[in-house]
Amino acid sequence: MVTLADPEYALSNGKEEKMKALIEKHNNNRIAQVEPDYLIFPVATGFEWVTCPDDCKTDWSFDDCRFKPPVLPVITAEAQQEYFTKLACEMMDKKVKERHYDGIIAACSYVGSTNERYSFEAMACMAWRDKVWARCFEILDALKAGRMEIPSKEDFLAMLPSFAWPEEITE
To answer: What is the pTM of this model?
Structure first.
């Protein structure tokens, strides 16, 4: 038996189902929920189901009988640089903490150490840090010039050079 709440109802009744948005009238017309027409339910005073576009989401706004997707903020070049350089620093700091360094700066400070292992690791970290910053600023230049879209955190980190610790030094 197919019921109104069954997804197969939309297919079995031969009609194309519309999407409905649950509007909270008392809360600045906030969109509380979006459902297919066959899943709507009775609502309390102050709420109303309104036919909406198929791609409507709860972060959209509803006013003057129109649905509007959210307006994404404009991110300045300075804010992009601050955000992505912080991500690069955090990535490098996290990696070197595997070997108990406080961060990338501390790891690089062991260049010239009398401990051969620390000195060797420091040189590898310094070379990696230079590659990371070079790539980071290539990406920032491309963003500033409009040659690429703003990447997600994951995509940005995947664009940076990876690091493998040098082979162990036998003393």
So the answer is: 0.59
